[in-house]
Amino acid sequence: MTSYVFDPAPRPAAPVRGTDARFPINRIFCVGRNYEAHAREMGVQVDREAPFYFTKSPGTYVPSGATVAYPPSTGNYHYEMELVVAIGKPAFRIAREDALDAVYGYACGLDMTRRDLQLAARAKQRPWDIGKDFEESAVLSEIVPVADCGHPAAGPLELRVNGETRQSSDLGLLIWSVPELIAHLSTLYHLQPGDLIYTGTPEGVGPVGPGDRIEGSIAGLGGIALTVG
Fold first, then answer.
1. In this structure, which of 105, 173, 216, 225 has its CB flanked by the most CB atoms within 10 Å?
2. Which of 127, 92, 10 has its CA nearest to residue 58?
3. Going by C-beta distance under 8 Å and a sequence separation of 6 or more, which residues neighbour residue 36?
4. Does the keyword Nucleotide-binding apply (predicted)?
5. β-sheet bridge partners, residue 160
6. Contact 152, 177 (CB under 8 A)
């Protein structure tokens, strides 16, 4: 029996619609600049040669409905509403036409961001880690298996703050589709069951503060909610 110098942290795992079983989270990949209007509002050009990625630690997972603390060392804490892909089978150098076979299901996600720290790092051509990969920054709804939702390629995506609509777009406006993302990402990593892909956010991102209530939805997948404590 393995002995540890301290108890290891439990494996983060998300609920799955229609079952008591949970989806163990392995890695979290995030796609940047995957909606043209969002890239414009961030003052950058879309790179159409290949998708752009950053990562979050599995321990940043937060279930929908939670209340999270306003994060330290930021004065510009942003929401980003996204479609999330849950990988259920190994995939390495998978062809685009076969990529959807690796998908277990889909969910709503919030990529919470310390925008001031992200932009400061970007200006110095440094990694975005401290702006993106911090505690309680990867919010996730229940995962809906493919058998219950199919493969959503179009449909409304919305986010509201205190009841006011801030983001309203359509999945059909993704620059890089889900099959394209899986196929490309599988040339860089051996994708494994438990991996999540946050596919990018549309325009309308903005700040929230203590006491704000965030609610989002994607057609066919239900909703997601977060309260800033």
1. 216
2. 10
3. 46, 173, 175
4. no
5. 165, 215
6. no
**Domain ranges for the chain:** 13-228
**Whether the Cβ atoms of residue 178 and residue 100 lie closer than 8 Å to each other:** yes
Write the DSSP symbol of residue 170: E
pTM of the model: 0.98
Q: CA-based Rg of the chain, rounded to a whole angstrom?
A: 17
- Tokens in use for 55? 């990562």
**Best CA proximity match to 198, nearest among 22, 38, 47, 53:** 53
Q: Read off the amino acid at residue 154.
A: A
Q: Which tens digit of pLDDT belongs to each residue from 41-58?
A: 999 888 788 999 999 999
pLDDT for the residue 46? 83
Burial of 26 (0-12, 13-18, 19+ CB in 10 A): middle
Which of 79, 74, 81, 80 shows the shortest CA–CA distance to 116?
74
Pick the CATH number of 13-228 from 3.30.830.10, 3.90.850.10, 1.10.3720.10, 3.40.640.10: 3.90.850.10
